[in-house]
Amino acid sequence: MTQPDDWLSQKIRTTGDTRGLKSNFSTASLGNTSKIGIYMASKMHAAIDSNKIKINISMAESSDYESPLECEFCDAKVSFVNGFTREVGDKIISVNPYFRLKTRNTHGSECKYNVEGQVKLIVRESEGNVLTQTESGKFELRLLAVKKAINELQYLAKKKNKDETDDKKETKEKEYVKSGKKLGSYINSALRVLKVRSFCEKNTDIENLLELVFEGVRLPWKDFYYEDKDFFRCYSNIRKATVTVPVAIVGVVKSIRTIDGKNGKFSVINLAGPYRKTDEKDTLDSVSVSIWSPDIEMFESYKVDDVLLAFGIFDASGVSEKTNKSSTSSVKKFRNHDLRLWPISKSQLCKVNG
Q1: d(CA 308, CA 251)
Q2: HSE-up of 287 (CA within 13 Å, CB side)?
Q3: How far is CA 147 from CA 182, 186, 187, in A?
Q4: 3-class SS at 174?
Q5: At what angle do helices 115-125 and 166-198 cross, to 10 degrees?
Q6: Which of 30, 40, 85, 298 gives 293 a disulfide partner, CB atoms 3.0 to 4.6 angstroms apart?
Q7: What is residue 66's predicted lDDT score, i.e. its pLDDT?
């Protein structure tokens, strides 16, 4: 199956002018703003039954409620979705149960679960030009501003750590803290938007409201926000990209380790990744997503089986082969596709509900 070209190389401008550009990878339809709200829904963790009793997940699993169910904060009708398990690579992952909006229902404008309302609040509270509202009434997340913030924080961190006199170090420390606070707010605004997306069931719940823009090019949500089933596609897109763009990856924590490196210790989070068959019967493709930090306390608030959202500029190294250590398995070899993130700020990570 042919993979799409790097989205950015097409240079599809906001004017819609595609003359002289590659066209085998179309951007997602953004829909009509008059339909915003109809499709928006968030996963909910409580509801109200017909007796006006608050129903939590445990009660719903035991069918301890009277239908119909409504949203906890407005009169929108909701239904209960049971939890289930799924396989991701060699790990069995539990998907938590939740309540969801019923078809042809929409949350009230002031409801906590109204995605449009949540995004508007984030836009109001954001600094700089990372989040803006367009003339059409939609919102834009400007990924170039986020990328510049990440790069600037990396530069300031390196500058701060250079060996100099105590006076210069103190001056640079103040400069780093002042600049870091401002730049970190840009990253934090982007992460807040991503957290809203993580509570949605699918991209269409948010993409008709919020556009992703990088240097005047609209980026489809499916090529920016990747869940574990999308890890191979994420790897392929990053390897083929001619320009580095921040992306978001959501997955389940498989392990957290501290390892010894040449220049000290590192803390590493590994996410559970999928396998796929190859032309060789004894070989499987695997994808490894890891987050690294020289700060061994950076990941102390996370644990195995947490659902983690990581945002930033990922590296995709070449495919490497490794032998399967299990002597009883029919799979003798793995071809690993490595995705790696070195976050500069804690704001690039957060725990979300699965």
Answers
A1: 6
A2: 22
A3: 14, 10, 9
A4: helix
A5: 160
A6: 298
A7: 96
SS3 state of residue 343: coil
| Phi and psi angles of residue 94, each rounded to the nearest 5 degrees, phi first | -90, 130
Q: pTM of the entire structure?
A: 0.77
d(CA 172, CA 239): 36
Assess contact for 231 and 273: CB atoms under 8 A.
yes
Interatomic CA distance for residues 78 and 76, integer angstroms: 6
Residue whose token pair is 């990328």: 147
Please say whether the beta carbons of 50 and 73 come within 8 A.
no
Q: With H, G, I as helix, E, B as strand and everything else as coil, classify residue 120.
A: helix
For 259-311, write each residue's pLDDT tens digit.
Answer: 998 888 999 999 999 999 999 989 999 999 999 999 999 999 999 999 999 99
Contact 114, 108 (CB under 8 A): yes
* Angle at CA of residue 14, ends 129 and 220, nearest 5°: 80
User: Beta strand 307-312 with 283-293: parallel, antiparallel or unpaired?
Assistant: unpaired
Omega before 68 within 30 of 0, i.e. cis: yes
